């Protein structure tokens, strides 16, 4: 059997669609995890006698410069599977499908019937957008993807004096994190400007108050560029996750820190996320990050002269503003690490939406005493990141 062939040009695609009696075209991008996961089923189908009359083709979009419209691909997400018969498109499927669902899709399309229903299964659509964002769209309640700590990495600055960067894409929207004694925290957001970056880390202490949710904000300015973080705003809203995508607001019972004096008077010991063994690993594979907690690495929320304001008690939304300290002759920049927490009513699953923006100032690259200023955004107020904290196992042990 012929197997799968890779399309190398728009002309080759047009020739395939027009000349083959039946064709299945899979649109992918090289970085897309759901595309990679779908390929084995696509390749197996190409080797199956049942689909011997179907020409299976793959288009790797990011290896070409043509537009989506030229590739007959009207939507911007991948993977997409387009099915053709006698030159006419008869089915368009967007997102990842399990092997059996994919085979049923082929059977339904080429037999003239609609998609076959699989009893007892929840329908899910996994897909990635062209800017690097991957998502899981649930058409019924069911299992969410597990958070892995993935982030978008931007190593190059496009415009020298560009002040406001587009918000970084959420590569794991609505994923779920289940803390354990061995894995207590996860990276939930990172934004960078070249080698300078800041992280948001979510963690939970299973043997303490299960309703207490912790966050770390970590800042790593590039010393080569004489960079410093000037300020950060972090906002997070909480709700009880329930069936049907409803999120009943959860009122915050306690919040730390409320100000600089609060942070100094009761310093919080927080586990650090053990990131990647070398900076080169980040450079080579910025799209993949799996965090774990190192029990031997602990530090307090060191406070210099930074100004901290935390608010949101008795509401579902906590907001922290942190501004760099200043002396008569110098600006000190933010500390490398801040820890904070909120306490919520006990709930087995906590839904949260959050966003943050930090102002980064760097120096001598520009020359002539000028400073480069960039606003790094992890989500926005209009389009925040979303995560689910699953505490069901923790609560069962208490």
From TrEMBL:
InterPro entries: Thioredoxin-like_sf, Thioredoxin_domain. Residues 14-104 form the Thioredoxin domain. It holds the Pfam family Thioredoxin. This is Thioredoxin domain-containing protein.
């Amino acid at each position: 059997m012929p197997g799968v062939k890779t399309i190398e040009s728009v002309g080759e695609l047009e020739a395939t669609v027009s000349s083959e009696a039946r064709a299945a075209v899979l649109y992918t991008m090289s970085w897309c995890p759901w595309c990679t996961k779908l390929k084995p089923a696509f390749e197996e189908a190409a080797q199956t006698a049942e689909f011997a009359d179907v020409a299976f083709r793959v288009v790797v979009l990011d290896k070409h410069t043509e537009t989506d419209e030229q590739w007959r691909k009207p939507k911007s997400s991948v993977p997409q599977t387009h099915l053709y018969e006698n030159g006419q498109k008869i089915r368009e499927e967007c997102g990842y499908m399990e092997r059996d669902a994919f085979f049923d899709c082929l059977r339904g399309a080429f037999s003239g019937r609609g998609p076959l229903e699989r009893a007892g299964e929840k329908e899910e659509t996994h897909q990635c957008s062209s800017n690097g964002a991957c998502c899981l769209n649930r058409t019924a309640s069911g299992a969410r993807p597990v958070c892995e700590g993935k982030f978008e990495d931007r190593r190059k600055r496009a415009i020298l004096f560009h002040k406001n960067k587009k918000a970084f894409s959420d590569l794991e929207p609505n994923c779920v994190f289940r803390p354990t004694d061995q894995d207590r925290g996860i990276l939930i957001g990172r934004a960078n400007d070249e080698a300078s970056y800041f992280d948001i880390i979510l963690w939970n202490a299973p043997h303490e108050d299960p309703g207490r949710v912790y966050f770390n904000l970590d800042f790593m300015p590039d010393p080569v560029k004489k960079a410093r973080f000037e300020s950060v705003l972090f906002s997070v809203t909480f709700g009880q996750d329930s069936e049907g995508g409803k999120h009943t607001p959860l009122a915050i019972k306690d919040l730390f820190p409320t100000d600089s004096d609060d942070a100094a008077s009761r310093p919080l010991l927080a586990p650090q996320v053990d990131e990647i063994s070398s900076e080169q690993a980040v450079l080579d594979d910025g799209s993949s990050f799996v965090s774990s907690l190192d029990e031997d690495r602990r530090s307090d929320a060191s406070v210099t002269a930074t100004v901290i304001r935390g608010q949101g008690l008795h509401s579902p939304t906590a907001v922290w503003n942190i501004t760099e300290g200043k002396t008569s002759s110098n600006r000190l920049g933010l500390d490398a690490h801040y820890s904070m927490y909120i306490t919520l009513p006990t709930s087995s699953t906590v839904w949260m939406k959050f966003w943050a923006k930090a102002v980064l100032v760097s120096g001598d690259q520009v020359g002539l005493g000028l400073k480069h200023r960039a606003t790094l955004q992890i989500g926005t107020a209009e389009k925040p990141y979303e995560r689910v904290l699953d505490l069901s196992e923790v609560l069962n042990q208490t």
